[in-house]
Structures are given as structure tokens and as C-alpha cells.
Amino acid sequence: MRNPLLSTLLLGSSLLGAATCLNTTISNSFVNMFSTDGDLIDSTSGKIDYFEGQFLWYGLNFGCGKAFCGIESWSSQDLVTWSSNGLLFDPKEIAAATICASSGDCGRPHMIYDSSRALYILWVNAGTPGYVIFTSSSPTSGFVPESSRALVGYQPEPETHQAGDFSIAMINGTGYIAYALIDFTTLGASIWPPFKQSIYIQQLSSDFMNTTGDATQVLPVGDLVDLQAESPDIFYRDGYYYISASNTCGFCQGTLLIMYRATDISGPWTRQIISSDTCGGQTTSVLTIPSSTGGEAIYVHQADIQASAPLAGPRNAQHGHQFQVLNFNTDGSIQNLDCSASVSTTITLPSTNSSTPINGLAQSATLGSGNGHQDYYLNCSLPQYVLYQTFSTPQSGNLTTVGINLAGDAPTDNVTLAVFRFPNATALFSPFYKWETLSTVDVTPEELSAAVLAISIPVGKEVAAGDNIGIAITSLGITPVCVAMHGTNSEYATAWAGAANGGFVPAQSVGEKVANGTETGSGSGGVLYAQGDSQVSYRGKNGNEIPILELSGRELKWYAIVE
């Protein structure tokens, strides 16, 4: 195993001073982020740390449609290109499954590295009292539960006072935990939560597997904002300790973004509210990126953007994310979050010392709509429509694989994917024309995830340069099925502008002009068409309009491999 670096909060300028700087751009338009395999990153309540020379993003999966599907991690060198490492542990293993079935569902995972033992320590919220600890020699796999729980300094009665959302961090060599204590003795609400919760902060033991000393309550105002605080994270900057938090939300589509700060870990604390709705989401963490030259560090706020999710349920796998650089005033206060889609910041990162390649099937595919950030959004117009994504092959060879992104909401039947060849659009739209089928795959309800995963279609047929290829997507069920879509012109190019700036493109809207067979397309050069379900005859007052809509300016997320 490579020599692990300390977490982001411990990285010092001496460690990074010899590194070659890497510039990367963080943008509010980067909402739906995809792994190098083409999958939408299914992370809720996630955290980014810096381990083994790479950024490590880990968070809860919800693609299986249950309260706990596992904790997945992704690695990146630039905070833009993310490669999946798989799950930190097997969620079906008996011990882990039993632990994560408890209240908390192994939520809000946070990790710390103990260099003296070369040990990664994972804390999760599962049951009571305190928290459950997993350990591993690797930050990406092999985590096993410890026999003892980590307790907290203030939890009067585990039956009525439950340790909830939390964060752990190491600051100047000392470990800390900030946790929300849920007080269930305040009951009686119907719409509002039937409890109060506020943040406590406490030091960790020297082995980072328990707490020590007294817990201090963070309650600068004492109003309902302080008494409904959750999802904390801890960081340190220029003489100030900071705790980021939200109000009670439960994976909701927007809540307050709170920032507490103090010059001493025990307080007194000052409170700010820097966003009214966290751009349509909930805060998860703040990533500290120390300067490679010993200058000012960069602090990147991370949020789950639940308002961008088109399917039902708070625990959903289709929501987006937002990374935004925090800006500070001279008194240590933080400037308001800016939800504008145009916000974009170029930052300098340390270069990686990792030899692990960041690649994947969609990243290295010969053809496709692109796996980078192109303002992809999610469209759930199936089964209301059948979609046809077409493209032209620029080279001859064997078309081995075609991929398309899909997600389902409690699917009731198969989704049929067909790859076909056709001479031109005129022929394709002609009555009684039959295309040449190259491959067909039925995706069963059991195979269709609630996460927007890239589905591979094996083809294995020879193609010539200039061949017209299509992907037909037909849902046979009655519940929504989603695809990933992005704009290729200015009208559709910005899918997400934040709740304060117009929201997102309607998830089931495809309205567009009737196809005429002459659209040249943009983006990858392909054309996207939609056909109303069972609309198989001419339409229009003169009885001569074909029932096919040409979705100009838009393209599905797809890839193809020609060898």
C-alpha cells in the first residue's frame, strides 16, 4: 500500500511545497456529476478527504431503494473526474447489516486517519448510545466493525436523547467531534419535528475511537434555529474554529446554511445564516485545501442538491451536488452563498502522488455525448415517450458496446434497449420501414436502479465509417424511468440555476417541433427524437404529420466503443 497522507485538515505546506500545482474549476452548473464509468454519483451526506495522494469522496448509496444500500467512495485528482472504488464494506454481511438496520442507518459517515497505527477509522450513526466505529488499513475497502461503541460526553438518557448527525476532524493534531443531540422529550408536534436538537462539540481520545473530556453545547442565540441544528462539519481557519450546519431537514429540498465560529473550541460561539435554502439542498461538509506554497487555504462547501432530483422520496439516488468556494471577511465571518448558475471559480490543488489511474468505461469510450460536466439534467419522460438517440460512426470497426444512463422509480416492467442501423432520417420515419437491429437488451425491474447508472448493451457488430446508428429506449412499465440529458445550444444548455434563479428543467417535458429528417444536431453530432407512447399513425389536420418529435438542442448521455 502507498504511504498514506493525512486527511485534508492535516495537510501542511511543508508536505505540499514541492508539488506541482494543478488548476481546476468548480462551478454551480456542475450539479449532476458522473463517475468515469458513466454513473451519476450516488452519494448522500457525503464527505471529501485527502488520502493516499488523492481526494476521496465517500457517502451513502440509495440506489437500491432502501434506507441503507452501502457507503461508496470515489477517487479524484482534480475534484472533477471521479472514479468509483466500490463499497467500504459489504452491507449484506451479517454484522454490518445488523448494525446499519439500527436508527441512523449508518448515516453521515466520517473518516479519520491514525498515522501512528496506519489505520483508517470510520464513524457512522447507527443506534444508541454514541456511534459505531469501523476500521481498515485502506480508506476504500475492508472496513470491519469494532466491538465497542464510541460514546459522547453529553447524552443524558439514550432512550430520549439520541446522538444524531455528526462530524469528526483533526485540527492541529487533536481530534474533535461535533454532533447533534436529539431531544425526544419535547413531543407533541404534528407538522414540525416532534423533537429539538442542537450541536455539541467535544475532543476525541488519542486513538480517535472515542471521546474524552466534557462536551460543550453550541447555542449562541438559543432560538429555534440553534435548537433545530443538524448535519454539522468542523474546520479551522486563521484562528477561528468553524462548525457548518443546517436546520432540521431530513434530505429536504432546501434548508438554512448555518455557520458558527469561535476563537476557542469551547466558545463563545457566533452564528451566521449564509443561505436561506442552501441552493435547494442541505449542507454535508466543508473541504479544506491547504496552499501548496504556504499561503491561504481554500475552503470548499459541499451540499446535496435534493431539489434537482426528479423522482419521489427524500432518500433518493438522483439528486445532484454543489461545490462552492467559501469567501471570508476580515473579521472571520463568511460571505453569503451564491446560488447563481454562473458562479465559477478556478482554484489551485496539490498534484497527486498517486499511481492509481483515474479512468473508466465511459471516460475512455471512443464515441459519446461526453462524460464531463456538460450541464446534464435528468428527464423522466418514459414511459410517456419512446426515445431515440442517433449518432454517426466516424470510423470503421467492431461496435462492441453501447451505453445509456437509466434510473427507475419502483419499476413495474422491463425497459427495452435496442441498438439499430438505418440509412437516413427520411427512411427511419417512413411508414413500414424496418431498421437493422444490431442488439437488444431487456433491463428488468430488478436490474433497474434508482440511481442513474450507465447500462451497457453488448453489440459486437461491424460498422463502417458514416453508418447511422440509433438507440431506442422503450419502457413497458407504468412508473417513471429517467435518462440523463444535456443541452447542446443556449436554449437548453443550463439545466440548473438554483431555487432562487428559476429552478430546473421540468423532468417530463419534451415538447419540440415535429421531426423533418434534416436536423444535423450538435454536441456529438447526433439527433434525439421522442415518440409518444403508442402514437403510430399520422397526425395533424391534413393527416400528414408523423408522430415523432425532434428534440433539437438536446442529447442523451450515451457512449459507444468501436474497436
Characterise this structure.
This protein has helices spanning 13-16, 94-100, 425-428; strands spanning 22-27, 44-51, 54-60, 71-76, 83-87, 107-114, 119-125, 132-136, 144-145, 161-171, 174-183, 196-204, 211-218, 229-237, 240-247, 257-262, 270-275, 282-289, 298-305, 320-325, 344-349, 367-368, 377-382, 385-392, 397-408, 415-422, 436-443, 453-463, 468-475, 481-487, 528-532, 548-550, 554-556, 558-562. The model is unreliable at 1-19, 490-507 and 511-522 (pLDDT under 50). The protein is 3% helix and 42% strand. With 563 residues, the chain is mostly beta strands. The protein has two domains: 8-349, 5 Propeller (Tachylectin-2, Chain A), CATH 2.115.10.20; 367-562. It has three helices and 34 strands.
Task: Summarize the structure in short.
The chain is mainly β.
Write the layout of secondary structure elements.
Layout: H1 13-16, E1 22-27, E2 44-51, E3 54-60, E4 71-76, E5 83-87, H2 94-100, E6 107-114, E7 119-125, E8 132-136, E9 144-145, E10 161-171, E11 174-183, E12 196-204, E13 211-218, E14 229-237, E15 240-247, E16 257-262, E17 270-275, E18 282-289, E19 298-305, E20 320-325, E21 344-349, E22 367-368, E23 377-382, E24 385-392, E25 397-408, E26 415-422, H3 425-428, E27 436-443, E28 453-463, E29 468-475, E30 481-487, E31 528-532, E32 548-550, E33 554-556, E34 558-562
Antiparallel strand pairs: 1-21, 2-3, 3-4, 4-5, 6-7, 7-8, 8-9, 10-11, 11-12, 12-13, 14-15, 15-16, 16-17, 18-19, 19-20, 22-34, 23-30, 24-29, 24-31, 25-28, 25-30, 25-34, 26-27, 26-29, 30-33, 31-32
Keywords: Signal
Organism: Botrytis porri
Protein name: Beta-xylosidase C-terminal Concanavalin A-like domain-containing protein
